[in-house]
């Protein structure tokens, strides 16, 4: 069972003529089966499924454009779908309509090792990409916990553990192909590393959560696999000692590739789920990339800072399989957390603040959470000032849901008050809509609504997401 | 004397009531004097001055908003103005109107050393910024040749010699305050290092060339001053040997901070203008940042690659004053080039291509230029695939201007054909408008025009720039 949601929108009428046209064009790649619709109306958020009226499995840009044209003509919602790993309700069909499954478009179209770029279809997942390019000596660093699709990651401006060194999807998408609401195709960006030519349409689509266009091709930056990699675990007596260390590391400009925080409960959950035996106190996971000498130098500098803050000596994960085990465990922290309270549902939040506010923001949040009647974990990509709270709720107890949402609200407000953002990497979806006005102001929201109306005048693309309904009425 | 321009637009009517209102509000900070208007209707492009009807010197966001409201009411053009260092005609008042001089808004509002950020007014110049923050141990790396304002650099998505390591204005602007055409104020972005909250309005304004809003405040990322810096000069027998070396350095992932190419003529001009005695053959200027050990390691790896390509042993510039002299000379390359042909005017171009195409693009361009009747130099930020051609024209010989523009056109088309862009860092302004359709396609241009109409329905903000007139009629 999962949590319901009060919505201000209604399902739209989907004419039979539209369904007939799609059925005739797509044959077995069109479905109204309950199980298929359920799969496409569900994600990793705690919300109840909301089913699309039908699902189309596209295999080409032209097919996506055909579906867009048809939906636009009939003013029927169209929701791009990857692997459904959203935590914020991005793919739920709150107004019904057509789910456009892009997982069949999963070809790596062109690797350009000389340019350190690759062009992929949107259904390629991040792990698939890295497996297929391994021989080139290059890799793609962006790694949200889930094995998400590159299309979905572009649409939510995803990041992950490597962002502190390599940036987010914002910095790593060079060019796109996008199907617009009316079926027109645009190709923003170029394969050059920089450009001053025209408005930055690429960055408009990156993070637009399927509301401005359907991403059908992505050109990404790649990076040489580091000559040397080492990973280390450092335990701290307190949460604040760990966070203070991170602040000093960033301020020193030490180019750590990863620096991840886990609180004691996240460590316990990870030990149980991933069969590790990490010391159960707040800890930082580090990874260092570079030449052997520079990796050693970075590690020594970081160890010194950690020690000054009461951190223990590093435990090293030197071998590739040890590192892989460690990072896989980190990526499974979400599923591990769920096991802290069997039968629970998770409500996750994700804020990002300036690093000078990180300690205060984490500590105030932890103090509030300590009063709550449910277990929680805190973990995060703290090198960016980004952390997550996972609250484990009894699905049969509405008061827990309400309390979690009050905590979520205070956390988002705290982050915004500290000149941060209500979401560092999960996106707005349904869950964070209520904070858009506070974060961006009335005028900022009006600009976003104007943008939406220009790009999608019939509001067919993933309607009901990101923008508050009232901003769309202006 | 400088070059005229055929324009498809006309000067607009500026009502006396508007001028009276501005005169009454701004007193001595309002001017219709010929000399003031000439200064504000001129930049470093080869075009003839085009004068605004009046100039207002703003000292606050509220004043900028007042001027915008008034201009919008009367549908009068409004052109933000910094130091006028554009090379592409950005500030020319092609439709007349009001030039809004922002150089009086030159305060550094807040340095946040803990967060590695700074918030500045738009009239702060890059050198002023670095001088004022020197004590903090931080620096701002983006350095177009001119001592441009941060507002102008944001508006043109500027970069420079450090972009290969630190990115461009696209990557380094965290947040903005912007006055919209109707005087409303928006504050896109946050002080967090990353965000997935809503459309990326910040990136829409960065590079919008004053056509979407007036940037009145900018929050930038800063970087710790490197522990060690070294600079080296490496001469090569041929242009292609130098460019091939750069390609290999980038592909190896060596984190050079700067790698600048100068052809033989650029070296000669720089020697004469800046009183240096660089060896007069194609050369690369390198700078390495990091710890002492990592700087040495980078330099050794680069020297090996250069040597394999026929490069000479490095000449080192170890002392800060030697480095400063070298980079000042590099930044003065534009003025140095002008001296190659006394009395000439310069037509500069600026393209950026994927690094795998850089050698071909530079060589084809040089071969064409060798046939031209005027001198030229080639130099560039080749680590990004970005290079400039400077053609030195006889202002009294229209056929030279025509030939330079034909060369410019073929170069832009070549760069776009190679999946690059017609401008890596100078922007579109007036000079590159004709390439917008080829680079972005009809649908991409239509989206940009839609964006412009949404943000500035009366087309008062820097009209006639960036977007072809016909795209605005749709």
From TrEMBL, chains A, B:
Keyword Oxidoreductase: yes
Organism (species): Neopusillimonas maritima
Residue span(s) of domain FAD-binding PCMH-type: 48-225
Annotated Gene3D superfamilies: 3.30.465.10, 3.30.70.2740, Vanillyl-alcohol Oxidase, Chain A, domain 4
Protein name according to UniProt: D-lactate dehydrogenase (cytochrome)
UniProt-listed InterPro entries: FAD-bd_oxidored_4_C, FAD-bd_PCMH, FAD-bd_PCMH-like_sf, FAD-bd_PCMH_sub2, FAD-linked_Oxase-like_C, Oxid_FAD_bind_N, Vanillyl_alc_oxidase_C-sub2
EC number: 1.1.2.4
The keyword 4Fe-4S appears for this protein: no
PANTHER family reported in the protein's UniProt record: D-LACTATE DEHYDROGENASE (PTHR11748), D-LACTATE DEHYDROGENASE, MITOCHONDRIAL-RELATED (PTHR11748:SF111)
Cofactor(s) in the UniProt record: FAD
Family: Belongs to the FAD-binding oxidoreductase/transferase type 4 family.
Transmembrane feature ranges: none
UniProt entry keywords in alphabetical sequence: FAD, Flavoprotein, Oxidoreductase, Transit peptide
């Amino acid at each position: 069972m999962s949590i319901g949601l009060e919505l201000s929108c209604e399902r739209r009428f989907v004419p039979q003529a539209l369904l007939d046209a799609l059925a005739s064009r797509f044959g077995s790649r069109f479905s109204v089966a309950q199980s298929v619709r359920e799969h496409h109306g569900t994600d990793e958020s705690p919300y109840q499924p909301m089913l699309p009226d039908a699902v189309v499995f596209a295999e080409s840009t032209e097919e996506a454009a055909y579906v867009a044209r048809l939906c636009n003509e009939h003013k029927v919602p169209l929701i791009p779908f990857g692997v459904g790993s959203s935590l914020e309700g991005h793919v739920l069909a709150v107004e019904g309509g057509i789910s456009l499954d892009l997982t069949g478009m999963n070809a790596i179209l062109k690797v350009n090792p000389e340019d350190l770029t690759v062009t992929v279809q949107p259904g390629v997942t991040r792990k698939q990409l890295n497996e297929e390019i391994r021989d080139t000596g290059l890799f793609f660093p962006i790694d949200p916990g889930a094995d998400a699709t590159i299309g979905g990651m572009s649409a939510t401006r995803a990041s992950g553990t490597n962002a502190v060194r390599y940036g987010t999807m914002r910095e790593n998408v060079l060019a796109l192909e996008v199907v617009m609401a009316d079926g027109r195709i645009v190709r923003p960006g170029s394969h050059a590393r920089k450009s001053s030519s025209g408005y930055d349409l690429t960055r408009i689509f990156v993070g637009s959560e399927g509301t401005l266009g359907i991403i059908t091709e992505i050109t990404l930056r790649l990076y040489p696999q580091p000559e040397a990699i080492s990973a280390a675990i450092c335990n701290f007596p307190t949460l604040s000692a760990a966070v203070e260390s991170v602040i000093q590391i960033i301020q020193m400009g030490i180019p750590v590739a990863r620096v991840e925080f886990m609180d004691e409960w996240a460590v316990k959950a990870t030990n149980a789920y991933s069969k590790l035996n990490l010391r159960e106190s707040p800890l930082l996971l580090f990874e260092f990339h570079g030449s052997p000498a520079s990796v050693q130098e970075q590690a020594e500098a970081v160890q010194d800072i950690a020690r000054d803050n009461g951190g223990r000596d590093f435990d090293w994960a030197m071998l590739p399989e040890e590192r892989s085990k460690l990072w896989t465990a980190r990526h499974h922290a979400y599923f591990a957390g769920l096991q802290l309270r069997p039968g629970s549902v998770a409500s996750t939040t994700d804020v990002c603040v300036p690093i000078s506010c990180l300690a205060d923001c984490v500590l105030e949040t932890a103090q509030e959470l300590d009063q709550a009647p449910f277990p929680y974990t805190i973990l995060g990509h703290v090198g960016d000032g980004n952390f997550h709270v996972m609250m484990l709720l009894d699905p049969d107890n509405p008061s827990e849901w309400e309390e979690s949402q009050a905590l979520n609200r205070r956390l988002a407000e705290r982050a915004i008050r500290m000149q941060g953002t209500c979401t560092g990497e999960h996106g707005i979806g349904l869950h964070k809509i209520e904070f858009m006005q506070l974060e961006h102001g009335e005028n900022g929201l009006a600009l976003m609504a104007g943008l939406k109306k220009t790009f999608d005048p019939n509001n067919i693309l993933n309607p009901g997401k990101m923008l508050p309904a009232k901003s769309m009425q202006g």
